[in-house]
Batch of 2 targets.
Target 1
Amino acid sequence: MAGLTLRGLRKNYGAVEVIKGIDLDVADRDFVVFVGPSGCGKSTLLRMIAGLEKITAGDLVIDGQRANEVDPSDRGLAMVFQSYALYPHMTVAENMGFALKIGGMAAAERAAKVKAAADVLQLAHLLDRRPKELSGGQRQRVAIGRAIVRNPKVFLFDEPLSNLDAALRVNMRLELMRLHQQLKATMIYVTHDQTEAMTMANKIVVLNGGHIEQVGSPMELYRNPANSFVATFIGSPKMNMLDLPVEAADRQGLRFALGNGRGLTVPVDGSGLRPGETARLGIRPEHLKPAAAGPFTGEAAIIEHLGGLTILHVDLGRAGMLVVQAEGDDRTGLGARLVLDVDPALCHVFDATGRALRRVAVREAA
Amino acid sequence: MAGLTLRGLRKNYGAVEVIKGIDLDVADRDFVVFVGPSGCGKSTLLRMIAGLEKITAGDLVIDGQRANEVDPSDRGLAMVFQSYALYPHMTVAENMGFALKIGGMAAAERAAKVKAAADVLQLAHLLDRRPKELSGGQRQRVAIGRAIVRNPKVFLFDEPLSNLDAALRVNMRLELMRLHQQLKATMIYVTHDQTEAMTMANKIVVLNGGHIEQVGSPMELYRNPANSFVATFIGSPKMNMLDLPVEAADRQGLRFALGNGRGLTVPVDGSGLRPGETARLGIRPEHLKPAAAGPFTGEAAIIEHLGGLTILHVDLGRAGMLVVQAEGDDRTGLGARLVLDVDPALCHVFDATGRALRRVAVREAA
Amino acid sequence: RRVRAQERAEISFASAAFFGSETFGDLAKAYNEAQDRVKVTYINLPPPSSSTEVYQGLVQQLARRTGTPDVFSQDVIWIAGFAAAGWALPLDEYFPADKRGDYFPGTIAACTYGGKLTALPWFLDTGMLYYRKDLVDKHGGKAPTTWDELTEMASAAQKAKEVEFGYVWQGKQAEVLICDAVEVIGSNKGAILSPDGKSCTINSPEGVAAIQFLHDTINKTKISPKDVLSWDEEPSRQPFTAGQSMFMRNWSYAYPISQDAKVSQIAGKVGVAPLPAFAGGKSSACLGGYQLGVNANSKKREAAIDFLTWLSSAETQRRIAINFGLGPTRPALYKDQKIASENPFMAGLEPVFSGATPRPVTPDYAKVTLALQSGLSKALLSGEVKKELDAVADRVNTIVGG
Amino acid sequence: MTDIAVLPGERPKPAARALSSALGPWLLLVPAFVSLASVSFYPILNGLWLSLTNTSLITQESDFVGFRNYAELWADPQFWNAWGHTIWFTFASTALETLIGLAMALILYEGFTGRGFVRAAMLVPWAMPTVVTSKMFGWLFDGQHGIVNWLLLEFGVIDQKVNWYGSPDTALTTIIVADVWKTAPFMALLLLAGLQTVPKSLVEAARMDGAKAWTVFWHIRLPLLMPTLLIAGLFRALDAFRIFDLVYVLTGGGPADSTETLSTLSYKVLFSTLSFGYGSAVSTAMFVTEGLIALVFCLFLVRQIRRAG
Amino acid sequence: MKSDRPLVQSLALYVGAVLILFWSAAPFLWQFSTSFQLDRELTAATPRLWPDPFTLEHYYNAFVGKQLHRYVWNSLVVSLATTALCLLVGSLAAFSLSRLDIKGRFGILVVILSVSMFPQIAIVGPLYLVASNLGLLDTYTALVITYLALGLPLVTWVLFGYFETLPREIDEAARMDGVGLLGLLFRVILPMSLPSLVTTGLLAFITAWNEFLFALAFTSDINRQTIPVGIANFTNQYYVPWGDIAAASAVVTVPLIILVLFFQRHIIEGLTQGGVKE
Ligand SMILES: Nc1ncnc2c1ncn2[C@@H]1O[C@H](COP(=O)(O)OP(=O)(O)OP(=O)(O)O)[C@@H](O)[C@H]1O
Ligand SMILES: Nc1ncnc2c1ncn2[C@@H]1O[C@H](COP(=O)(O)OP(=O)(O)OP(=O)(O)O)[C@@H](O)[C@H]1O
Ligand SMILES: [Mg+2]
Ligand SMILES: [Mg+2]
């Protein structure tokens, strides 16, 4: 098992630059998730690491050695494809043993390795089937098994769960996490689903338009997003964003003017902003609570009951909409008038460029 | 707009019965969601209503008239397909106007109708594009637009969102709900995603193996699932199920023996069960709370931080695993020992056939 | 006029398509314009290079016995078959013996089956020896009359490196091989079939010696390249007109080509002569060309005969000789001034045509020729001439005897 | 949207539509069947019948003789000679076309500048009329003036001109070359289409598994291409089995019957000797042999499809 | 993608491409060059690759002497009519087999295909008789009918394969939109199948354009004969005017080459995948 370092990695397709200089360290046994909107370059970056795309500029260092020109099969990586890419003409066992066979391993040894991997993935009873005789989840596990038998330094996954249905997706997610612990392997995982990123990663890399927006642990990103992109991308339902005029701002705090004559002071370093300018206030849905008094007032426009949770879409009128995540089965009726309160210490403020203002007197949220 | 009635609807493919007698009433302006696992017959049922599959037995009544033999295009329904099924060789406007053109409507009138529908869906600027020049969400809206222009009695949707990514799916979900209110239309919607069902439906039909498991409003199903199938299918994370020995049972309650010498009495009509038999205890993850004392003790095996929520997988040892949904950002560490409590009035009990035991002294959950 | 048009007897005429400065369609038109008794419709068949298709097309029409076409043209080798099937009207009463004297005797013989004249000669062609005048002058002065002379002169020229090949002929497994064989065998006093047409005599000593000679030209005297075994007319013509060969056996069509400077490297140096013979034998030339016939089921017999007579008349034959370059079947025309001035080469062909020999006359010719082609090809290739000819003689005997 | 106008559903059209929907599919097949029946079925049945008679245009006979023609065929060395040539021709040209077509397809599958042009050039032989091709090959392989001999001599491959069509050793081979030239592009086209259905991710997965170009081809692309290969091979084999024009124009079956194929034989029997009875027996025997070839291919195909799906 | 290949591999690729070019185009180019050379040069001891002297005589001969343009016209009429009919009839059949619930549709496909296995040699004779009885000899009709049947099996097969890849949901959407059976085919399926129509159209066109045997049997009138027959007719009695034939071949092949060049992409597309990529 091993670490991985990316230094100024770039990729051009003709004149178009798709990956615009990526620097990243992946430590041994990390579970790194690349997340970002569609087309941001996640797959491309992963494929560059795998060796399936040529690197235009920069260095890829695997285990201390520059690997830009190393053949995919010699990098000691294994990849699991979104479409699984199982060989349809081979049985499960043959699929899993193919790499070993090519590597020249003796049949007996190969069978043993395949058996071992199949046991880990509970595939032992399926070894003689062909891919078309398997369910989606089973195929997924075969694809992983094919990676496992090679005993790679690093596992690469490209949206491996996106072809599965919701229930199966949750199961496979857990299974992958279990596997990560069991194999003590380094894993790099691509997804556009922030839930997957949040639950699986110990390090999330948020990509956007070919560059890194932020790197950090899930809760770091959740609590301290570096900019409004990360803030809205991470967390579901996504963070409410209100563009509001600044009433006062200094190093210790920033006061927003709310339409109704009231204000809200957020403890951030507002020294770069002046009164009268507009800044963006970010509030996570679960931090808004119905209360007797509070800075926001509106009426419930849409109510989504999820059973254990209720999502309220509150229309503030001119100021926009707020999404509120209420616990349990909230009984608020459609059209009901709601007053919402929020702990200012949990709010985020972003300047015109989208950069987050530094929190002062950091207080952790509950 | 109109209602719909299904009476003993059946469908055979050769010797295999796929739909095994469905009775259902859909009222005007209902938003009915068919939900169930893959292969349970949702699509088949929807397609029988649409007229795309022949009805083997039973009656389909639309607006008071038997419609079994009516041609699909004459039933006054419109369908939105999972793959959108847009005509690739036509522009958006042509796609939307095609049914009207076939119906012989004059060009000017047609254009007006298409324009009106496009406005509703914010597609007006895309009318001259072809499907392949559209994003997934835009295609989805064109598919809906194609349905809208026909001014149908009932809209039928077959998993219309499953090809979209998570963020878009949430947006389109809201848009569909808005549309339902705006058009005041009757809608029948097929999905296998219980979240969609919960948030969109005013009536959920849970299908399984070709028959109806339960019909009701989302919260009805959530609170009072008729059987263990519905109980686990509805709600996410799904309901914990523990098979436990019955210590005592009567009309007023049922007491489970928990391994550790403690017990849990659930207020259900346990008169059909005897001590010593096994029954299934169902507890929703959000009803389990860490507490100083409680019936369950275990250690945190997997922890999923979702930001606003934390999902704990607690290993009870021999009794199995419990999934706990904790609010906010729970700080429980991996391997931590947890004691969990639950309000017995919120628990469910199912007998050996999976049928839910009737609750006594019904008390609503928070 | 319309009335008169209705009174005219309408007949049809089918023929393979020959090309020239006019077509046979034009001939029919000329006839229609020349008189007002008969009106001819021309049915165009494929060109003679697709003779199998021509044959098939003709047979299918004749076999239906509907009387269409009333008049048709035919290759020499079909005459016996058509006559035996009763499709061809015997013409003896219209062309008594005195009238037949105007034609080459060989062609009249070919038109006769079972003692009856069933076809009328139209135009003609035979195999002939082409030679390089310049080289012949050098190596003996006059065209060879025996195969030995030919071999000698050819070898001499080859040795002197004046030409690559001495003699080119046609050995492809095709109809032309039979023609070449008929000629050598005939020039050795042999024949492929007995005079009654009921047995095969190709494996007689004369026949074997003749075929052995052909084999020797390739393998022993080496005056011929082994390519001749895959050559029919055109491939053999090309090296000759390219100046690579001293002698060539070919039909008359090659003459104008070899004298055309645009195509030929040896224009002006080409002579033609009757094919040589073996010592004691006499030159023999395979008869080709087309003959005319009248459908036995024709309902307009008189009109058909009228047209037939016109087609074969000296006047029309002259026209064909000039406009199509095809040799007349009337010896008299070879002295004709007009032909001589338009197509000067023709005059020299008379002696060649005089020696024309028909191919085996049998109604089963189609089967016989296939067997012969195969057998001769094997004999020439393997060199086991006697053995192969014995074998093919057996096969032919079962065809013609049975 | 709220105006509930007259719904289009009120148009009644019960019986007519039901009928047309039941009969519709068959009605749509009618033109194809009429066409095939009139041009193919009738002659085939006619041929089957004729093969049981001694019909000959020349002898004017047409009597039922049972299986006498087939008995005669069975004992006819010419038939078996032609049969052998035809089978060999079919096998050799199909195999070569497959190999060359596959190589072409593999090259043209890869992206490189000018690929479109090369793809189009590849199809040239296929688009040329067979009549032209055969004349052209007669010309190219001419023993004396052929450019092939000239080139081979120039490059010292041979030391004297080869008489390609005049020697039994080379005649059939040369015809096979001509046929391969003409039809390999068609094969390449089908295989190219087949290659494009092999998902790219499989090839990438194999590369990750350590497979080099050759291994990828041998273990991934080829097995997945197998059904296409078999179908294309079947089409080609059946077509090759009927080879006629090339042989007829180039050698006429010679020398010494060494290039006689079933088509040329049956052509000669049918149209030169006009023995329709015997000739039809030859063509029916051809048909039967083709059926057997098709059967072998189909067996392989079914196995393949079962396996790979 | 292109740059991702190692040098050796690119090199091999280009060598392969050049070989294909040479193998495919060289014979034709040689033929093309022949058409500009004097007949005399063709039989010279050393072949000339470049025409010298250059002559257009063969083209003159072909068009003026042999009236090639008439054959070209006939071929065009016959081939285009065949193509159109093949596409129409073939798409009806393929549509019915692919879209409608016909039992034993694979059996029907196999029958259609097996019909094309019968040796054409054996069909010519009977058909000639039929055609002549119906007075169809020397008509375009006879040729078109025959070529239709010759082209139909492959056209149906390819179109069937293509239709099978088009999603059924499109049909169903159209049915919901009120389209009838033929409307579905002509307004929805066919417009979506353009690549495949191009491919099959080309297949049918080339089949008809190149066919020789039937054309020879059915036509004897220069006003109805097609190019292959015309070229065969160039050979008079024995004389084969190589230069003229080469010229005629060039004339008939070049348009096909241009056609193929133009449609090259669609040809392969038409054989592979359905047009709808979501
Ligand atoms: N072969 C290519 N040629 C040109 N551009 C390409 C190519 N492959 C990808 N791109 C572009 O590169 C960008 C990144 O693509 P990539 O597939 O890495 O996105 P992604 O983040 O994986 O998206 P998704 O979540 O949709 O898979 C996209 O804008 C895409 O259009
Ligand atoms: N044409 C058919 N012939 C035979 N069985 C069929 C056919 N179509 C569907 N089925 C069967 O009917 C059952 C119901 O299929 P259906 O497509 O309605 O499921 P579904 O609930 O829509 O599933 P999914 O969520 O996967 O779309 C399945 O078991 C399926 O295998
Ligand atoms: Mg991707
Ligand atoms: Mg479905």
Target 2
Amino acid sequence: MSVALHPAPFDPWRTLGEFEAGGGAPPGKFGATAAFVGTMRDFNEGDDVRAMFLDHYPGMTEKHLEAIRAEAMERWPLDAALIHHRVGNVEPGDPIVLVAVWSAHRAAAFEACRFIMEDLKSRAPFWKKETLVEGERWVEKNT
Amino acid sequence: MSVALHPAPFDPWRTLGEFEAGGGAPPGKFGATAAFVGTMRDFNEGDDVRAMFLDHYPGMTEKHLEAIRAEAMERWPLDAALIHHRVGNVEPGDPIVLVAVWSAHRAAAFEACRFIMEDLKSRAPFWKKETLVEGERWVEKNT
Amino acid sequence: MLDSSAMVYVKFFASLREQLGTGELQLPLRPGMRVEDVWNSAAGQPLPEHMLMARNQEYVQADAEVRDGDEVAFFPPVTGG
Amino acid sequence: MLDSSAMVYVKFFASLREQLGTGELQLPLRPGMRVEDVWNSAAGQPLPEHMLMARNQEYVQADAEVRDGDEVAFFPPVTGG
């Protein structure tokens, strides 16, 4: 699955192994794989964070991720690209997002991976609500 | 192991899973992991490549990789960094190099990972000898 | 004459949904209606400058036209990844 | 007076090793010897411009001094990763 939302915890490294084992990327053709994993931390904006709810817009979120992936595949000579993201309740230490791209050479891989992450952070319809030691708050905006 | 040379094939994604499971990176602290895998292709400089011998300088190669890792840890606020590289006989489709870094935020992770890869490509004592359909050749220089 | 069957499906997300106390509502489509007009009818407060808008699950600006059966969504800046 | 016991350990790698037919040799250290001199004694051909050099497993330039027991290596541009 090139684009997927995970309501339950997922293992990004196993996901990549399975994607490749399933022929997601053409063996012998790709020479460079760049991957990024965003993981929930137990600390944010000066406060301890106990848990998090990841809200999203069913339908638009998937469409948007597919659109970013398609744009990256178009702008760089990629053999494959993958975007997985958590939704729902997340605990500190849980991976939240996995972006991976496969290409012949490393420049395209690094650039495309970064492009997807930056767009995802700035435009993909997700919203984080943090549970602090006392109370909850919606994260205002992404850095 | 933060720096390792592999005489036999290795699985980069499983390596990352085991590194994290072994406490290689502080759970709850790191929020961003950037990883790069270089994989042998079955084609180079216009020729089909059947196999490859990866030569290295025992002692200096390890020292150099440790030095690049240390420099990256110093220049960026990283929680952990890892460099694994194959040596000896390699087949098309075999992963050759794995670089991964862990940090609080993605900018440092992407930049440090790219820095390590670029230095490794330009200065780490490794040399590739390709076996073509007919004959062998040493790769002249890295792109 | 108001086309009584023409409707607009409105959605609110994240903190906005909590503030307004609802995530979804429908309202009758008025001729020449734009996304901004949908907000004014549905939210009962001025459209905040940072608010993001989508029509049929694609980003639009406040002056985008709205047609029968369109899904119009409003949500605060995104914080995913 | 030549210190007969003072030696330099020389290594060649990759295509250079194949060209010279050897990967390792030792030669007596001469006073004031530099890496370039080691090459001239060991390789019997002019030092190619692109050749890389290391002393005790760290990169050095051709004019680096060589001391007793040093390991001096010569190798072509690297092609790892």
